[in-house]
Amino acid sequence: MHNHQITILPNGIKVISETLPYVKSFSLGFWFNVGTRDENEDNNGISHFIEHMLFKGTKNRSASQIADEIESLGGYLNAFTSKEHTCYYGRGLSRHIEKTFEVLADMIQYPAFKNQEIKKEAGVVVDELNDIEDNPEELIFDKFESMLFNGNDLSKPIIGTTKNILSFKREDLFCYLKDNYTFDNLFIVASGAVNHQELVEFTKKYFVKDLGKSNRIRNKLKLNQTEDLYVFKDIQQSHFIMGKPAFGYDNKNRIKVSLLSHILGEGSSSRLFQSIREKNGIAYQVNSFLNSFFDISTFGVYLSTSDKMINKAVDIIDNEFKKLRSRKISKKELSKAKEYLKGSIYMSLESTTNRMIRLANSMIYFNKVKPLSQSIKEIDSVTTGDILEISNELLKENTMNKVIISSKNILLYSAA
Asked: What is the CATH number of the domain that holds 309?
């Protein structure tokens, strides 16, 4: 990340930007350090619901005005909620950045939360929840995390439950906003054709409402025993995950797991893709994954195949695990994985939105902007011995948790 600047205003808002002289557009994100992890049983889903509701009108604008004001300038507004944060962002041509800033600031400070809009949007979000239920390859990751983190705040699905979504009241939304959408939880992050000093001025100009301070403390994670999970759905294929917890962003071993994941199952030349799909032809999709939070990650293998082939697939996966545990990979294979990982980082940085997201994550997780050179150095410093060591720790027999979504009752007889 070159030429980035950080300003922390007296009220606690952090403004982070990087100027790219070679682009004509910007990506501007308003990030709140709040997500599913900060909810409880009764309000699970509220972070995501509020993210929807902020687009439904403010004291000053209707929902269609919000969309129209930005789109008529050739720009774009969107948002997303994760388990740890919520982001509202806009893209546009550099000359329209002030308007985009003003609209986002209006949405955050003065949402209308009209009762009829809440009711309508609840229907929309329940539809979204049903879409996930209908989509086993998305659903299985929700089920996997809820099983792995049971008894913890990270176990809850981002979208929440139908019961909760239909019960949110206007005052619930305002209360949650007041507690979490605070100055010290707000990161204003931009990348592209932007001027840092201008952003600081906009922040002073458009944030006139006192958003106060947050006194929330996140619960510490403590992992409990978990059981394998079978979900019955009337579907053609069986979907399967085996995996376990691994290191989060706060642990420097995470980069080793990331490389291991690439070697194992990311990309068409990875071991699992070659052995399961190319050699045996038993699954169209198979991949490993590393999904990270601040203090923990989920790591594992996902595949979908016919119910008859699940056990054969699991045998092959076990076999690949065994190989990785028993001997060092070649320097060539490690170097290939490193290039793949570095390539995906560099290519993603050609998008101002990805750059903006990287800046924000870095500030939220590390309280500084982590230089790209440091990330590359961390990747380069991993040795074949590190991969062997991490394989023995993560790919031990009988230590993986499993989730299956299938229309049949599949008996697993594997050692993994």
From this structure: 3.30.830.10
User: Residue 194 has which token pair?
Assistant: 């932007």
DSSP 182-206: -GGGEEEEEEES--HHHHHHHHHHH
Report pTM.
0.93
Q: Which pLDDT tens digits describe the chain residue by residue (416 residues)?
A: 458 999 999 999 999 999 999 999 999 999 999 999 999 999 999 999 999 999 999 999 999 999 999 999 999 999 999 999 999 999 999 999 999 999 999 999 999 999 999 999 999 999 999 999 999 999 999 999 999 999 999 999 999 999 999 999 999 999 999 999 999 999 999 999 999 999 999 999 999 999 999 888 888 888 888 888 888 898 899 999 999 999 999 999 999 999 999 999 998 889 999 999 989 999 888 999 999 999 999 999 999 999 888 889 999 999 999 999 999 999 999 999 999 999 999 999 999 999 999 999 999 999 999 999 999 999 999 999 999 999 999 999 888 999 999 987 766 654 44
- Structural domain harbouring 265: 229-406
- Rounded CA separation 157/145 (Å): 8
Last residue of a domain, one of 206, 221, 239: 206
Determine the Cα–Cα distance for residues 271 and 264; give it in Å rounded to an integer: 5
